[in-house]
């Protein structure tokens, strides 16, 4: 707190005094130059405190994190007051005007001090509850130290016992979601209050404003409507195959799919059950996990491999501080920490880190590439003023690493780096690979949409408080065609059993990223000379742009802009396009769509699903 007061005094922000009362653009530019330096310092303090807490969840670390966050909020409030001394809306310099506009966004910092402190405590409670969940073993009920990572995740991935899967699903949701019900209620109230203090009608509009496009919500509905027919074909085919494994009593012919059978705690991706639902089970699926283990891969080598990919594009290598300060393996000292993979920018030169409890698997290798995409973004825009050190929109940040993962996971690239050998990439193997990608990419789209559609509805007051849980499952059924394995009621509260909802992380970014990453990928492949729609020897689904200086140049042009321009400008710098579109997704999956439609007709597979009866009101 002492540091903050000294800092504010240094800039004449205390007691309403302002050293920059002049309204000239020259004085405004000088003010911005100084305040951006101090913002970087305070943001660094804030990030360090958050890192310490999420890496070691203790009461002491939580106290420090909340104190520093509160100080940061006070500092930003003082800046917002200072901005009123300038007629910045009429500045001629568009960059100066944009910086002032972005500095005026307070978010939660707009709350009165008491409310802000309560919000921090509320979020910490939900965050901490999620991280500390332990469940008892299905086999040995005396063993009650099982965690989401790695135990429950591995069981959801590998077990084919529906009763065991339902048991762990129930235990997780009961402990990760339901205990947060009271806190979540207060969180929604404070979120709404903050939104109104920022001149928005609700938290939904506050979140959507980050995309600088009033039509964003409708655009996404339209794109999802375009993609939904392919999703329904995938859903119908998977349900049909699961019926062959589990029988009619477990999986109905026309109903939603019981989500505990889909290989993921939230049924957000279904790739983990590919071995039992792939179109051509006699064809080997691409899974290089065993080969990674055989070759002695560890977490460090996985991160080095992703780093080398970025370097092959003439992009930035991981700095020394990354290797010294990151947590890339789960600590063995017994501490509680948030294992959910995350990338961090500490707003100093080259101080970037990743926290990930890495396991040696193909899926985790994709996650490593994803997180390093964030790191590359941080490094590319670290020269910009504080307010521009973020993605063109939140979805851009999430898309970058996934574009590399699409290229990395191709048979062409895996063979190149020695993880895939003697692989026969015929048409059946190609459809298997494309189907596996669809189980992750296409299946994720309705899931991602519902995570925020649900919260938007709560923020906007469109759902009565007593119907919050069933409203969540209604959306999951409507968009994804899935349902919980057991009946849920309003005595349960299941949405916060997903980390991002407990942690107050806007999820639209992931939906946007899963759309635009295919636009970026297609563009990078064309620039690298690796995709030609008229040449069957260069299909989009086997494009590897590794080593392409042209693709790297396009990445750098987009990433180095940060948020200094509206996102259509950043997209245009990479792709030449200014709008999000599902066209690249359709191009990528076209062979699979044709095959699925014919196969489902041949097997008389029901497309679509009836309503679920798995959530009951009080």
Describe this structure in words.
The protein is mainly α and 618 residues long. 57% of the residues lie in helices and 3% in strands. It has helices at residues 2-10, 25-55, 59-83, 94-103, 113-131, 148-158, 162-176, 181-197, 203-208, 216-246, 274-277, 289-294, 299-312, 320-325, 362-381, 394-408, 411-416, 427-459, 468-480, 499-502, 508-527, 549-559, 567-575, 583-602; strands at 257-258, 342-345, 352-355, 482-483, 488-489, 615-616. It has a two-stranded parallel sheet with strand order 1-4. The longest helix is centred in the last third of the chain and has 33 residues, at 427-459. The two termini are 47 Å apart. Residues 1-21 have low confidence and may be disordered.
- Biggest sheet: strands, sense, closure? 2 strands, parallel
The computed structural class is: mainly alpha
| Largest sheet, spatial ordering of strands | 1-4
Count of discrete alpha- or pi-helical segments spanning 4 or more residues: 24
How many angstroms does the end-to-end distance come to? 47 Å
Q: Residue-averaged pLDDT, rounded?
A: 93
Spell the H/E element sequence: HHHHHHHHHHEHHHHEEHHHHHEEHHHHHE
User: How many extended strands?
Assistant: 6
Share in helix: 55-70%
Radius of gyration: 25 Å
So what's the overall shape? Answer: globular
Low-confidence stretches: 1-21
Sheet-strand content, in percent, reads: under 5%
Which features would summarize this protein structure in a list?
618 residues, mainly alpha, two-stranded antiparallel ribbon, globular
In short:
The protein has helices spanning 2-10, 25-55, 59-83, 94-103, 113-131, 148-158, 162-176, 181-197, 203-208, 216-246, 274-277, 289-294, 299-312, 320-325, 362-381, 394-408, 411-416, 427-459, 468-480, 499-502, 508-527, 549-559, 567-575, 583-602, and strands at residues 257-258, 342-345, 352-355, 482-483, 488-489, 615-616. The chain has 618 residues and is mainly α. Mean pLDDT is 93; it is low at 1-21.
